[in-house]
Write a structure and sequence with these properties.
Layout (H helix, E strand, L loop, with lengths): L4 E8 L5 E11 L6 E11 L10 E6 L9 E3 L3
Parallel strand pairs: 3-5
Antiparallel strand pairs: 1-2, 1-4, 2-3, 4-5
GO molecular function: rRNA binding; structural constituent of ribosome
InterPro entries: NA-bd_OB-fold (IPR012340), Ribosomal_uS17 (IPR000266), Ribosomal_uS17_bact/chlr (IPR019984), Ribosomal_uS17_CS (IPR019979)
Subunit structure: Part of the 30S ribosomal subunit.
């Protein structure tokens, strides 16, 4: 099974080797037929502390690295 890759914006980089990435999803509401935006935050591993708040990054699914980290930042 392939690993999921998503793109989002870094909202926090205060933790060591960890960034919080906000992923925004758009879909059409089934009843109202309007476009709805929802977002979810993911903790991602950033080995070299390269990402800063506001950066657009891609994250990839990986094995559990800690209690909350299940994603790793891809080096682009």
């Amino acid at each position: 099974m392939p690993k999921r890759v998503m793109q989002g914006v870094v909202v926090s980089d205060t933790n060591d080797k960890t960034v919080v990435v906000r992923i925004e999803r758009r879909y059409t509401h089934p009843l109202l037929k309007k476009t709805v935006r929802t977002s979810k935050k993911y903790h991602a591993h950033d080995e070299d502390n390269r990402c800063k708040a506001g950066d657009i990054v891609r994250i990839e699914e990986t094995r559990p690295l800690s209690k909350t980290k299940r994603w790793v930042v891809l080096a682009d």
